[in-house]
Write a structure and sequence with these properties.
The structure is a homodimer of 493-residue chains. Chain A has 493 residues and is mainly alpha-helical. The first copy, chain A, has helices at residues 3-31, 38-57, 59-67, 73-90, 94-117, 120-145, 149-155, 163-191, 203-216, 252-270, 287-302, 305-319, 328-335, 352-368, 376-388, 414-433, 437-441, 447-456, 466-474, 480-492, and strands at residues 224-228, 234-237, 240-245. The first copy, chain A, has a 3-stranded mixed sheet. In chain A, helix 5 (94-117) runs antiparallel to helix 6, helix 8 runs parallel beside helix 20 and helix 10 packs across helix 11. The radius of gyration of chain A is 23 Å and the shape is globular. Chains A, B: Broad specificity carboxypetidase that releases amino acids sequentially from the C-terminus, including neutral, aromatic, polar and basic residues.
């Protein structure tokens, strides 16, 4: 560790502190800010982002990166991540960055109207421009990062996994789905309908229960908050995590399972290595890794038979009523219901990957120039028919449903399913290491699981890319077999 | 307006945006943040402050200030304020700034223990160092700003008024007090005791009422929030003002009048000139000006007979019970009670200035080197005896009660009483301009008053110093006669 590296650590620490300030102001904008504060908040966030960019692209940085030496796994990885951040910030011409920002912002606005009126033609010109600039960006980043153009985009969301690795994994899943989905539907039909949970579920009681379960899952009250926002998220900083949700009096599942999902994200942030706080290597490993942590809590843990037994008791203790609707088996029928739907965010565990596979293939083709924007609706509907056997009745329930592409986010979608698969793989490894895991979960006790995740995932920060993280934690790179085994055990046995 | 001035406007806009971000994070730290977020919040705030300082002291600033030209009152004043900010940021050696920051922080910590144990000797060494560094600071700033050393300190809280102007005003008040206070006490004794307001006053109802009255006073719901914190304050930014308070079930006055006080501050921020948002001239004119706006709402407006009649009706509508305790006359006896006390923050309108006069004279002497730190307790108790005829039983209720000096804030205290006097003077001018003001206030309607303040104070930003602001609004500089007339009418007639 020489002086140049020490200077870089100081500099990246300031950049990260600006990022933390921005994260807090972003949370505030969603959870607290009165509408009238929006314009000034935009100025504040733009200033923080601009100063962060200036710190990252100052001439001194290139000099320091050239002279920096760092020894040991952690500092070497940290220095490497500094280099990559610098490349990302400097490899693109300013005009391209600005044109992209403008195009994304314009397209996103038009998309809201296009989705409302289910009118793809309305957004087509703006989306064409967004895709053109994303292709330019991908091509410009590609040589600097030593990645294919699409991988260069994907890399900004999740480092250490390539489209060439993802495609066969997704293809294997597609084959699995072809037989698994009809079979799951058949078993589900045989088991009969669930008893509905009838509310009302008063919001203060929901809030208290969600907070209590979040804390019981291991999130420290002194380092977190739970608030409300239109779009639930996990924000804030590693020592001060801010979860938001929204409540409906007639539906207890949305907020409760939503908070537990965000708790998974929050626990990841809480477990990041303190010794590298506000350093690149001290951050979470990427979006797929992050999604693996929300899903290992929400899907692998909280929707397990064992935890549902605990959850049913807790719910009934708070909201009262008959025992039958709160039985684990009934909750499983309610909250693990499988169905072919048009909307990704409403999809179940089995069909969700189909929505992602469709988007992954299409965005790869868009970036490669093999798919024209004008052909998106047709390709979308064809893909839905092929993967799930259904055709959206309109584009609002088809290619217009997601904000991502219309906001310039290409390479993000795979993270959802890579995360779901990684969650299953990590859970299998954790289960092998923890005796009596289900008995613990049946008491709502996830501490042993959390301990395992702390050492194998959270505490690793960004030291390793996605595949290497899985290798170190489970002995192998991403293996869709573990996810399929999980689904088979849960839905098909 | 040439290019150099335009560059400066951009730069000061960024500095102000950083300040706004810091203000929001400061609010969050007091009102929202879990304890575990404190350390990281310190890093975030230090980074924002550091970057703001770097922007203000960059070599380019001196060049631009030398070349800048601005025409018109507003831009000329803006440029002048930029120069003054630059002088403040560059006139002091870095070592002095850092030594001062360290000394203040160390002393403040020791002071908490010293106050708890009423042990002045404990804090004396640390306070001696703070005073020494404040004197050095004052002496260094003095020539650069063209002000006496003490005025250079006072100027950082309130521009445009000097100690030489303040001293005769305070002397006049001291003479007034000598006869006014005994007479007020005598009248009060003759009128007999008030009927106490007996709670409990449920907190949610207090909160709703306080918020409603704050909004009725003219604070837009879309541009403000009301939350809780240990130490009530008004924070945030001009388009997103954040008021905090604290509630006691057995005392409705503390939160209610506290919120109305902070509403005065908030209305000032809301009324600042939008055309100069995030520019020096677009900020509030100083701490005395700010206090004049909280006090014109709390003291001049809300504790007036007219408004108390309205307030009594509102309170009774919410909390019910007999009519008698809520009669305006009874509320006046409760909330305009006069008494000689040791504690500044608990003081009434008449005796409050005595607490300030004492501190003003002592801190002037400390900075001039005419008073040694070791002699503070003696001088304090002597001053209290002379001004109010009482002697604190211990230093905790004497010279150790306030954080200000122990945190390095010298020159701040006069703002409280300059604000109280300015509030009376502004109210008198407003009253002359607005027919039927009391009839409006009796309906809780302060819109005409707010309109007058918007044009004569709020909308003036920092264009004028304190005395010039008063001259423009009322036709004369600060005149203690208006405050004395107010007190005479309220307490002595």
């Amino acid at each position: 560790m020489n002086a140049a590296y020490t200077r870089l650590k100081t500099r990246f620490g300031r950049i990260a502190a600006l990022g933390e300030a921005g994260a807090m102001l972003g949370w505030d904008a969603s959870a607290m800010m009165p509408a009238g504060g929006g314009e000034a908040r935009g100025e504040q966030l733009a200033t923080l982002a601009g100063l962060g960019h200036e710190l990252l692209t100052a001439p001194q940085v290139a000099d320091d990166l050239a002279a920096a030496e760092a020894t040991g796994d952690w500092d070497a990885a940290n220095l490497d991540l500094m280099r990559r951040a610098h490349i990302r910030a400097t490899a693109l011409p300013t005009e391209l960055v600005e044109a992209s920002t403008r195009a994304n912002s314009a397209c996103e606005k038009i998309w809201r109207e296009a989705r409302r009126t289910s009118d793809f033609a309305l957004v087509r010109p703006a989306l064409t421009e967004v895709v053109r600039l994303q292709r330019e960006t991908a091509v410009a980043l590609s040589p600097a990062l030593g990645l294919s153009p699409y991988d260069a985009l994907m890399d900004s969301f999740q480092r250490g996994v390539t489209a060439a690795e993802v495609e066969p994994i997704f293809a294997a899943y597609e084959a699995f789905l072809a037989t698994a989905l009809p079979r799951a539907e058949e078993i589900q039909a045989r088991r009969g309908a669930a008893i509905p949970l009838t509310g009302p579920f008063p919001v203060p009681a929901q809030r208290d229960l969600a907070r209590r379960l979040s804390i019981r899952m291991g999130l420290e009250a002194d380092h977190s908050r739970l608030d409300e926002s239109l779009h639930p998220f996990c924000g804030g900083t590693p020592t001060d995590v801010r979860i938001t949700t929204r409540y409906r009096e007639d539906d207890v599942a949305q907020a409760l399972l939503g908070v537990l999902h965000e708790t998974g994200h929050a626990l990841y942030e809480r477990g990041l290595p303190e010794a590298f706080a506000r350093q690149p290597v001290g951050e979470a490993a990427g979006m797929a890794a992050h999604e693996s942590q929300s899903l290992i809590i929400e899907m692998q843990t909280c929707r397990s038979d064992a935890y549902l037994a605990f959850l049913g008791r807790e719910l009934r203790a708070v909201f009262g009523g008959d025992a039958a609707p709160y039985a684990a088996d009934n909750l499983a029928r309610l909250w693990r219901h499988v169905g072919r739907g048009f909307i990704r965010v409403d999809a179940d565990e089995i069909t969700y990957p189909a929505h992602i596979i469709l988007r992954f293939r299409m965005e790869r083709a868009l970036i490669a120039g093999d798919l024209a924007v004008a052909d998106i609706p047709g390709a979308w509907n064809e893909g839905m028919q092929k993967l799930l056997g259904i055709t959206p009745p309109d584009d609002a329930r088809g290619c217009l449903q997601d904000i991502h592409w219309h906001d310039g986010a290409f390479g993000y979608f795979p993270s959802y399913t890579l995360g779901a698969m990684a969650a299953a793989q990590l859970m299998r490894a954790a289960r092998a290491a923890i005796t009596e895991l289900d008995a613990q979960l049946a008491q709502g006790d996830a501490s042993a699981l959390l301990g395992w995740l702390r050492s194998h995932v959270h505490g690793q920060g960004s030291r390793l890319g996605f595949q290497d993280l899985l290798r170190a934690a489970t002995g192998k790179p991403l293996d869709p077999a573990d996810f399929q085994a999980h689904l088979t055990a849960r839905y098909l046995d």
